[in-house]
Amino acid sequence: MMPLKYYAMPWLVLQPALKLTFNGFEQLIVRGGNPALFLIMVSLIVFWHIYTPIHELLHVGACLMGGGTVSALALKPQYGGTILAQIFPFVVAESDYAGQLTGFTTPNDLVYAWVDVAPYVLSLPGLALLTVAVERRRAWLFGPALVLALVPLMSFSGDFFELASLATTRMVPIVDPSLPARLLVSDDSFKLAGSLAEQKLLFHPIGLLALLTQVLGILAACWVLVLQLHLVYRLWGGCPDLKLPPTEEASGSQPE
């Protein structure tokens, strides 16, 4: 059974999750050498380019499933934007990000929240796949598993910030009724911070609300890792130690 501390304090999951990742990477490289490193890097790059459009289309699917509408999905050409634009009329093959759902409406904030988190369902088996890749010495699987496992952490300032902002932005009218009620809703916390600085709101109670939103976004991202680690505990009966065992020389024994 996974320790209760990870459920109560989700940030603690970073230590076992990253340890599992780094130890697994070390073991594959030590055992497989440069060919294993090559397979990991190639599979990671290839899978990232496959995963990105799928991730964005899952945002779209979640929106439509919840009764919303989609008018624009910006996607860079290198991630299939040009090809997908010929299939889906709402795809625009140009973006400041890898991909971004730029034009959509939702009937309520519950559906909006579902739009934010839906793609991360794919991440739930991330750490489990990573463990399988190491135990079965499948270097080609480690790259995709790494993307699935860690992409929630990469999105702490994006989707998960936006998820948290749906709650915290409700406090904006209480702090200052003259400000827009949806002021904090954003899928880029750094861009929002720049906007608040321009409006002289960064060092203001609104700035503290934005900081609280980012903290909640980080916790939400950590919760996806908690669910991943929970699956590992269920399948392996605990968190496997993927660290290489000591060599005979390191353990002090002499070869025969």
Automatic annotation (TrEMBL):
Keywords of this protein's UniProt record, alphabetized? Membrane, Transmembrane, Transmembrane helix
Domain of life (superkingdom): Bacteria
Q: Which residues cross the membrane?
A: 28-51, 57-75, 111-132, 139-156, 202-226
Q: What is this protein called?
A: Uncharacterized protein
